[in-house]
């Protein structure tokens, strides 16, 4: 059993492995009182006035106390982060990292701006950890990129992946969780999907092109497509063979 878990862990793509490890270690550290959640949550005043910049990152790593809800979010983090990195972003680790960076920036900006809007500030003030929202963003992006995959929710409802975020949102409301957390993830996910997939098809421009300094951080391996052994390929045209 331990060996199987170790193999499963080693086979995870790099970003998924890093994020899952950081989330589990942070949450366990808080549950054992080794780390205090008070040093992790998003506090704009402490970030700006006392330069506690780490809060911009650590608020995405803590998933509250270790219970059934924690295991639920770890499952979704491991599953959909891994699916995105291995499929949609295969061979493009830098682009995947940039997607997470974009999502984290959008979520942080929404919370900061929402905290200054009357009638909404009270709701946004309660959102001090954005880890669940970032996980939900990944679920949303995956569902938009794989809309026709058939799924089942709790074995009771059958639907296509395009409706997965809405089923999860409804489930959160039913169990008494804040709908804002999931809605923020959907907003960030839709912003990425529109700017990365829809807008370029409309205009031919890609506003979310990954910066070169981020690409320099990752040495993406080329994706090799194996040629089937029993398939014969036609030789190149004669005119190509005689070109100088």
TrEMBL record:
<comment type="similarity">
    <text>Belongs to the derlin family.</text>
</comment>
<dbReference type="Pfam" id="PF04511">
    <property type="entry name" value="DER1"/>
</dbReference>
<keyword id="KW-1133">Transmembrane helix</keyword>
<feature type="transmembrane region" description="Helical">
    <location>
        <begin position="148"/>
        <end position="168"/>
    </location>
</feature>
<dbReference type="GO" id="GO:0005789">
    <property type="term" value="C:endoplasmic reticulum membrane"/>
</dbReference>
<dbReference type="GO" id="GO:0051603">
    <property type="term" value="P:proteolysis involved in protein catabolic process"/>
</dbReference>
<dbReference type="InterPro" id="IPR035952">
    <property type="entry name" value="Rhomboid-like_sf"/>
</dbReference>
<dbReference type="InterPro" id="IPR007599">
    <property type="entry name" value="DER1"/>
</dbReference>
<dbReference type="GO" id="GO:0033554">
    <property type="term" value="P:cellular response to stress"/>
</dbReference>
<comment type="function">
    <text>May be involved in the degradation of misfolded endoplasmic reticulum (ER) luminal proteins.</text>
</comment>
<protein>
    <recommendedName>
        <fullName>Derlin</fullName>
    </recommendedName>
</protein>
<keyword id="KW-0256">Endoplasmic reticulum</keyword>
<feature type="transmembrane region" description="Helical">
    <location>
        <begin position="123"/>
        <end position="141"/>
    </location>
</feature>
<feature type="transmembrane region" description="Helical">
    <location>
        <begin position="96"/>
        <end position="117"/>
    </location>
</feature>
<comment type="function">
    <text>May be involved in the degradation process of specific misfolded endoplasmic reticulum (ER) luminal proteins.</text>
</comment>
<feature type="transmembrane region" description="Helical">
    <location>
        <begin position="174"/>
        <end position="195"/>
    </location>
</feature>
<keyword id="KW-0472">Membrane</keyword>
<keyword id="KW-0812">Transmembrane</keyword>
